[in-house]
Amino acid sequence: MSLIPIDQDDYSEMNPGSNHSENEKVSRMKQETALKAYKKYVFVLLALFLLIVCSCKKSVIADQSNEVSLLRQTADSLLSALAAKDADRFAGYYDLNALFISLESGLHHGREDIKKSYGAGFALPNFYISGTIQDVQVSKSGDMGYTLIPWVSYFIPESGEKIERKGLNLIVWKKQDNGSWRVMVDKP
């Protein structure tokens, strides 16, 4: 659910006259930089997840299955906004201080920044994205949860060749005081 950069092989096919060895160096440097950033973001995500899990209330909710059902409905609505490429409605499911961690575009903090990031993907020509909820879990206290969502996206640039990506999205949710669920961490 994030923008995917064109890899070196795709670039070389689109520009057959390019200097391949220089492009390989640049590509390798970009990959190394992206890997370092990715490790940092994964560490931040894991640290945040552990912090959230450890800070959960210890009381047990009366009807955990009802909370799972409510979270699933909210995640379905989020996916509906995603499929419609409605950046405003989509961003409305995020907490004001949410984090979106993308390998391609880095760390995005806050609803507005996340809206801009996803909106840029929605604006790509012939862009398509879809996901299906695989798993929904809610903490015993009923105030935190997560969803796992396998996804597929593609777009067709001017070259006409379809570029497709797949992944597994982990979303950490927090129940609000009004009973609604909001995304705290989004890691495609």
Polypeptide structure, described:
This protein is an alpha+beta fold and 188 residues long. It has a single domain, classed as Nuclear Transport Factor 2, Chain: A. It is built from five helices and seven strands; from the N terminus they run H-H-H-H-E-E-H-E-E-E-E-E. The chain has helices at 8-14, 20-54, 64-83, 87-91, 111-122, and strands at 94-102, 106-109, 128-131, 135-138, 144-155, 163-175, 181-187. Strands 1, 2, 3, 4, 5, 6 and 7 form a seven-stranded mixed sheet that branches. Strand 1 and strand 2 (106-109) form a beta hairpin. The longest helix has 35 residues, at 20-54. It is globular and about 60 Å long. The termini are close together.
Number of domains: 1
Average pLDDT, rounded to a whole number, is 82
What fold name goes in the CATH topology slot? Nuclear Transport Factor 2, Chain: A
Mind describing the biggest β-sheet?
7 strands, mixed
Judging from the principal axes of the Cα atoms, what is the shape? globular
Oligomer: single chain
Number of strands: 7
